[in-house]
UniProtKB/TrEMBL annotation:
<keyword id="KW-0808">Transferase</keyword>
<keyword id="KW-0472">Membrane</keyword>
<feature type="transmembrane region" description="Helical">
    <location>
        <begin position="19"/>
        <end position="37"/>
    </location>
</feature>
<dbReference type="InterPro" id="IPR001736">
    <property type="entry name" value="PLipase_D/transphosphatidylase"/>
</dbReference>
<feature type="domain" description="PLD phosphodiesterase">
    <location>
        <begin position="217"/>
        <end position="244"/>
    </location>
</feature>
<protein>
    <recommendedName>
        <fullName>Cardiolipin synthase</fullName>
        <ecNumber>2.7.8.-</ecNumber>
    </recommendedName>
</protein>
<dbReference type="Pfam" id="PF13091">
    <property type="entry name" value="PLDc_2"/>
</dbReference>
<dbReference type="InterPro" id="IPR025202">
    <property type="entry name" value="PLD-like_dom"/>
</dbReference>
<keyword id="KW-0677">Repeat</keyword>
<keyword id="KW-0964">Secreted</keyword>
<keyword id="KW-1133">Transmembrane helix</keyword>
<keyword id="KW-1003">Cell membrane</keyword>
<feature type="domain" description="PLD phosphodiesterase">
    <location>
        <begin position="393"/>
        <end position="420"/>
    </location>
</feature>
<feature type="transmembrane region" description="Helical">
    <location>
        <begin position="44"/>
        <end position="66"/>
    </location>
</feature>
<keyword id="KW-0812">Transmembrane</keyword>
<comment type="function">
    <text>Could be a virulence factor.</text>
</comment>
<dbReference type="InterPro" id="IPR022924">
    <property type="entry name" value="Cardiolipin_synthase"/>
</dbReference>
Length: 478
């Protein structure tokens, strides 16, 4: 009897093993098929397929959580008014300088949007300058307020914004707020709860407190947008937190740059918010409260470029590539995280080798040490090609800006890394304006403190070099 029971148990165990192996095989095949059909980057595709076969369950869970980077939104592109839809064939704008007509045509093809003239830009440093201007604008709101922020803390700064939004709503303005479901706090962010208690309509972008209902941990809305009455907009890199009030000496001060925008291009920014709010709350915003007629406010030509892991994938990165190839004299940029993909690295290298001055300013120490390590393991080809990489000392600067030839500039929320270029929902503004470009160029060049050289990289101890090279392998998700 014992022998029969032993054989039965052995058979059952063997059957269970075969069933588990069969399930693992099916999962691995399923992941492999999905990767082959969806992943364009060869290295990433090989890595995910290998992980799925080596560890079918664990690898597949990782792929579902971090590897699937396409989201279908009901509103996937900026809409245009009927008067703007006469001809979709890219045409150079009359407001763009002659040397940049080809770039204008290319970006119009990428975005589907024309440049618009008649805008005005003002630049602010840190929350110390940006917050008073933003709160003043909310305080003057009469018809609508749209606010989107990756980080929105429930601290003194956050509470001031909550109170201002509530006051605007009490005056009769329609108010809508989007907070990222990860950046502002995973388990029901305190600022979101405060807004809800105040009765202010607020939505969390791609959020669920239940991990199994949160399959898109990587896909965040990184935009920083404030639009008042559809006429005045603020965008750039500034989140909402006490850390951005540098003059008040917080524990971890964060320097940053933000912009106030007036003029017809504000409609592009509003349409971007409308698309996000439709996705978050299934409510379509329309009418003159949100989209009023806009008169010229200045002499600046601009265009919004959105990017995200849906129909807008890699649009910001593609615009950057186009701008690099059009440069004739100089490329200046500053970014808190510098881990561009190989295409952009090669484009910068080629620009430097044909005699263009390429200056990149990065922080000495960011708020993500893994990114700092990976950066040191990633920039060797740039230094060898003559790209000048400069270190900006503390406190940490979160600014992102790019200029070309002192005439064209690119500002907004996107960092120079794969997360911003492929995974996050981002918004940048392309600006053709010598005055703003020169000011940004002076700002970028003024941040240079020490130059990073090949000798500095070679001086790293072997364990440090190995660490940096190993962390660099995580580049697609840092």
């Amino acid at each position: 009897m014992e022998e029969v029971l032993t054989r039965w148990l052995g058979t059952t165990a063997s059957l269970r093993t075969e069933i588990v192996a069969a399930i693992g095989l099916v999962i691995s095949v399923g992941v492999s098929v999905h990767v082959l059909l969806r992943k364009r980057v060869v290295g990433a595709a090989i890595g995910w397929i290998g992980l799925a076969w080596l560890a079918p369950v664990f690898g597949s869970l990782l792929y579902i959580t971090f590897g699937i980077n396409r989201v279908e939104r009901r509103a996937r592109r900026l809409k245009r008014r009927p008067s703007q839809t006469v001809d979709d064939t890219p045409q150079p704008s009359a407001h763009v300088p002659e040397p940049y007509r080809a770039l204008d045509r290319a970006v119009q093809a990428i975005t589907g949007l024309p440049t618009v003239a008649g805008n005005r830009f003002a630049m602010f440093r840190n929350g110390d300058e940006a917050y008073p201007a933003m709160l003043a604008a909310i305080g003057e709101a009469r018809t609508s307020v749209a606010l989107s922020s990756y980080i929105f803390r429930d601290d003194a700064t956050g509470r001031a914004f909550c109170d201002a939004l509530k006051a605007a709503q009490d005056r009769g303005a329609e108010v809508r707020v989007i907070l990222d479901g990860i950046g502002s706090g995973y388990f029901f962010p305190a600022a979101w709860r405060r807004l809800r208690r105040l009765g202010v309509p607020a939505g969390l972008f791609m959020h669920s407190a239940l991990p199994w209902r949160m399959p898109f941990l990587n896909l965040r809305t990184h935009k920083k947008l404030l639009i008042v009455d559809g006429r005045v907009a603020f965008t750039g890199g500034v989140n909402i937190s006490d850390g951005n009030r540098v003059a008040q000496k917080p524990d971890f001060p964060i320097r940053d740059t933000h912009f106030r925008i007036e003029g017809p291009v504000v409609e592009h920014l509003t349409q971007a918010f409308i698309a996000d709010w439709l996705f978050v709350a299934d409510e379509e915003l329309d009418g003159e409260a949100w989209l009023p007629p806009l008169a010229p406010a200045g002499g600046v030509t601009a265009r919004v470029v959105t990017s995200g892991p849906d129909a807008d994938i890699e649009k910001i990165a593609t615009v950057i590539l186009q701008a690099i190839t059009c440069a004739k004299e100089s490329i200046r940029l500053t970014t808190p995280y510098f881990l561009p993909n190989d295409l952009i690295v090669n484009a910068l290298c080629l620009a430097a080798t044909r005699g263009i001055e390429v200056d990149v300013v990065i922080p000495k120490k960011s708020d993500h040490r893994f990114v700092d390590w990976a950066t040191r393991g990633h920039i060797d080809p740039l230094l060898k090609s003559g790209v000048r990489i400069w270190i900006d000392g503390p406190p940490f600067d979160h600014s992102k800006a790019m200029t070309v030839d002192g005439q064209w500039c690119f500002i907004g929320s996107a960092n120079w890394d794969s997360r911003s270029f492929r995974l996050n929902f981002e918004l940048n503004v392309e600006v053709y304006d010598t005055e703003l470009a020169r000011r940004l160029e002076a700002f970028i060049m003024g941040k240079r403190q020490t130059r990073l050289t090949l000798d500095d990289l070679d001086a790293r101890l072997l364990p440090v070099r190995l660490r940096d090279a190993a962390v660099r392998l995580l580049l697609p998700y840092l």
